[in-house]
Design goal:
The complex is a heterodimer of chains A (118) and B (256). Chain A is an all-alpha fold and 118 residues long. Chain A has one domain (21-117). In chain A, 86% of the residues lie in helices and 0% in strands. Chain A is elongated and about 60 Å long. With 256 residues, chain B is an alpha/beta fold. Chain B has a domain at 1-79 and 193-256: Rossmann fold. Chain B has helices spanning 44-51, 73-77, 95-105, 110-123, 139-151, 169-184, 196-202, 220-226, 234-242, 247-253, and strands at 4-15, 18-29, 33-37, 59-64, 67-68, 80-83, 157-161, 188-192, 205-210, 213-218. Chain B has a six-stranded mixed sheet, with helices on both faces. In chain B, strands 2-1-4-5 form a four-stranded antiparallel sheet. In chain B, α3 packs across α4 and α3 runs parallel beside α5 (139-151). The longest helix of chain B is centred in the last third of the chain and has 16 residues, at 169-184. The chains are: A mainly alpha (118), B alpha/beta (256). Chains A and B meet through α1 and α4 of A and α2 and α3 of B.
Chain lengths: 118, 256
């Protein structure tokens, strides 16, 4: 089923690009930029954390603040993605196709998550 | 005993204080073409949505081919195809790609899929434009793609919500012929329509829903008998049952 979902997404995206519909391409570029930004931020935060531990010998309070910040940052990203996928799941026009097909709600959610991410 | 392919048992849907569908009981047999009629806002689409599992009933239950749609949704859903009132197809896919996707969703094997795909595109007169994106199609063509999508997995039951809306007379006739032929082959069809002529000429039985209540069920002959008008058309019966005497108000309003 995952292959089917991936195939559908790739088809929709490639057809959109071929048809000259820029919105899908722009969304993809922004998603990639966001992913790069996320990796960069994580890397610099990790580096900063390492520097704090190395220089101060590991102050508990700074570590706690940083780890809390780090966890909150990622939790917010994950939660907002899930919320957006749920939103897409309940508002998309293609929902009757999915809800009347013999597929589980888990698969439908996954498809909407992928739509949101692509 | 003949198995009812579609069974609605005490089906009720309430939206807050509004009862959209009230205690509907229906049993539709194998190979039957059932026409579902009613004025705007009577509860036709809500009933179809509950029958197809798109809406959860407030009370009651639905069985498709003997499977409870709430308890065994995957088994029940694998038996039917659904054509909604608006053809919600992927605009960024071609008709061929869309039908391939639907076939994969219903796990139709590759060989059967290719054969059915060619047949359906030909049947719907879309073979020349099957490789074009759906976004360039007219409403009628999208409707044909949606109907083809509902047929690709050889369903035993088909639900259609206003299937001929937006179709030209030739295409509408073709769809009617296809539906009749499917019934002859044992497929059960549940179709809502506003066009009473279609219901009168095509359907084995019709049900009339008004303000959420299923007020009449039977063959057109039975309904004529109930309405005590042996020469009445289905339109006369429909207006009599649903209280369609507003034309007198209209004439009054126009000063006639």
């Amino acid at each position: 089923m995952l292959t089917l979902l991936l195939k559908l997404r790739i088809r929709v995206l490639s057809n959109s690009i071929r048809a000259g519909t820029s919105s899908q391409l722009i969304t993809l570029i922004f998603s990639l930029l966001f992913a790069l930004m996320l990796i960069g931020t994580s890397f610099s935060m990790g580096l900063g954390l390492f520097a704090v531990i190395y220089k101060t010998g590991g102050s508990a309070s700074i570590l706690t603040i940083l780890s809390t910040f780090f966890l909150t940052f990622f939790a917010l990203i994950v939660l907002s993605s899930i919320a957006a996928a749920f939103y897409a799941m309940f508002t998309s026009q293609d929902l009757p196709i999915w809800l009347t097909a013999p597929v589980s709600l888990r698969v439908i959610f996954l498809e909407k998550f992928m739509v949101h991410k692509s | 005993m003949v198995l009812a392919m579609i069974k609605a048992i005490e089906l009720t849907k309430r939206f807050g204080s509004v009862t959209a569908v009230n205690n509907v009981n229906l049993a539709i047999s194998k190979g039957e073409l059932f026409g579902f009629l009613g004025p705007n806002g009577a509860g036709k689409t809500t009933t179809i949505k509950m029958l197809t599992g798109l809406l959860k009933p407030t009370e009651g239950r639905v069985e498709i081919g003997g499977f409870d749609i709430a308890k065994e949704p995957l088994k029940a859903k694998s038996l039917f195809g659904y054509v909604p009132d608006q053809p919600n197809v992927y605009d960024k896919l071609t008709a061929r790609e869309f039908l391939t996707f639907i076939a994969d969703l219903y796990r139709v094997d590759g060989k059967t899929r290719e054969r059915k795909l060619g047949d359906l595109l030909q049947l719907m007169e879309l073979e020349d434009r099957g490789d074009e994106l759906i976004q360039g199609y007219s409403h009628g063509m999208k409707q044909k793609v949606a109907i083809a999508g509902a047929l690709i997995h050889d369903p035993r039951v088909i639900f259609l919500d206003e299937p001929t809306v937006g179709l030209d007379p030739k295409s509408a006739r073709k769809i009617k012929d296809i539906l009749r032929e499917l019934c002859n082959r044992g497929v059960t069809i549940f179709m809502s329509t506003h066009i009473l002529e279609i219901a009168e000429r095509m359907c084995d039985r019709v049900g009339i829903i008004n303000k959420g209540d299923l007020v009449a069920v039977g063959t057109v002959e039975e309904l004529r008998h109930q309405a005590r008008g042996e020469n009445s058309s289905l339109e006369d019966i429909f207006l009599q049952i649903t209280g369609g005497s507003e034309h007198e108000d209209v004439i009054g309003f126009l000063g006639g």
